[in-house]
């Protein structure tokens, strides 16, 4: 049976929600520091464990709805996503199956955890919930005043599900609620995730815009395959910084560099008439190379210098350090090959002795 327009739209909304989570996870993966780990759909939509064992839980909510100014709709005081997310976290905090049946255990979990709601919904409106929460965080109002606000909100809310979520928060132990509110964070207007990923690639890997575009599509595809295979195999594994470097970044970076190491031929090359005046040619002559061999090697020398110059002008194809190390290593190998008959120009640098640059 063919899908109706409404059904197709509903499927598209679900799909983009999954993609939002996927790209947000990739963004957080690229921000991982050494010693940190990230999991997807294990402890929450996304969770991060830092090097000190602290837990960060991220719930992700995405909307396609727009307001009159073509921005994503506001996250309102009675927003379903807001209260459903908070309710999920309260259930997690109070979960007896996780050994948190009393306030002491609940407080230990809260104090080790940060709770973050990330959404592309707008924060441009004045959401009274955020205003009151901010006043509480600044110690301008007490926990009793905050609970009083929740009670008023409960009595003036029509939606049964949202009323249930608000009531659940009201009935939590006062000290537990106090500490939970202090560990809540909200990331609003979280849009343009793909552009943020490209910006990180451009900054951290010193890539120009075209290269960061190519790198994004490479790692996005790799990450999707890794996630698919992991889910198919039934694994609940986390990602480390080292795994991100080895499984996501290393291959595409090497591919990018190999693609950029294109060798430009010397179309108008002509052997100089005074070639035997150059240290390079004299050194070859010292080991009994004839003119044809010297001309051939001189072309290769000029080809090498031309391409090194081109590669060094485009980061990160070749860095100044890599260029310098190349000449040092080449000079060392040159001396070993020539042995005692290695002729050195007393007025030339190491690089000039070898390549007469």
Structure description:
The protein is 57% helix and 8% strand. With 357 residues, it is α/β, with parallel strands linked by helices. It has a six-stranded mixed β-sheet, sandwiched between helices. Among the domains are: 54-191, no CATH class; 275-355, no CATH class. Mean pLDDT is 85; it is low at 349-357.
**Overall mean pLDDT score?**
85
Strand content: 5-15%
Strands side by side in the biggest sheet: 5-4-3-2-1-6
The SSE order reads HEEEHHEHHHHEHHEHHHHH
From the N-terminal CA to the C-terminal CA, the straight-line distance is: 73 Å
Uncertain regions spanning at least 5 consecutive residues: 349-357
Instruction: Work out the radius of gyration.
Output: 31 Å
């Amino acid at each position: 049976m063919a899908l109706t327009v409404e059904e197709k739209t509903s499927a598209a909304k679900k799909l983009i929600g999954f993609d939002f989570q996927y790209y947000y996870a990739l963004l957080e993966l690229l921000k991982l520091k050494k010693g940190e780990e990230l999991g997807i759909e294990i402890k929450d939509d996304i969770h991060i464990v830092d090097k000190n064992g602290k837990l960060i839980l991220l719930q992700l909510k995405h909307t396609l709805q727009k307001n009159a100014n073509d921005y994503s709709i506001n996250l309102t005081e009675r927003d379903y996503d807001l209260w459903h997310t908070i309710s999920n976290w309260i259930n997690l905090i109070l979960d007896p199956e996780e050994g948190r049946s009393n306030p002491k255990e609940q407080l230990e979990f809260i104090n080790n955890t940060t709770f973050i709601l990330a959404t592309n919904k707008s924060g441009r409106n004045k959401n009274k919930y955020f205003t009151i929460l901010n006043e509480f965080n600044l110690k301008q109002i007490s926990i009793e005043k905050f609970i009083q606000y929740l009670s008023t909100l409960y009595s003036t809310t029509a939606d049964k599900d949202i009323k249930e979520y608000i009531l659940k928060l009201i009935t939590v132990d006062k000290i537990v609620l106090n500490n939970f509110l202090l560990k809540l964070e909200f990331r609003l207007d979280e849009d343009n995730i793909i552009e943020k990923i490209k910006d990180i690639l451009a900054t951290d890997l010193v890539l120009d815009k075209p290269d960061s575009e190519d790198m994004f599509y490479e790692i996005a595809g790799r990450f999707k395959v890794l996630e698919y295979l992991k889910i198919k195999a039934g694994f609940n594994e986390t990602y480390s910084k080292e795994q991100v470097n080895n499984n996501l970044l290393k291959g595409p970076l090497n591919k990018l560099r190999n693609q950029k190491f294109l060798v430009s031929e010397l179309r108008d090359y002509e052997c100089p008439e005074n070639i035997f005046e150059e240290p390079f040619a004299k050194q070859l002559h010292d080991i009994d190379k004839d003119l044809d061999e010297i001309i051939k090697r001189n072309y290769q020398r000029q080809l090498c210098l031309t391409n090194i110059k081109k590669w060094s002008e485009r980061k990160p194809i070749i860095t100044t350090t890599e260029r310098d190390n190349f000449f040092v290593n080449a000079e060392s190998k040159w001396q070993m090959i020539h042995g005692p008959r290695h002729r050195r120009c007393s007025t030339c640098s190491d690089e000039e002795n070898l390549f007469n640059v």
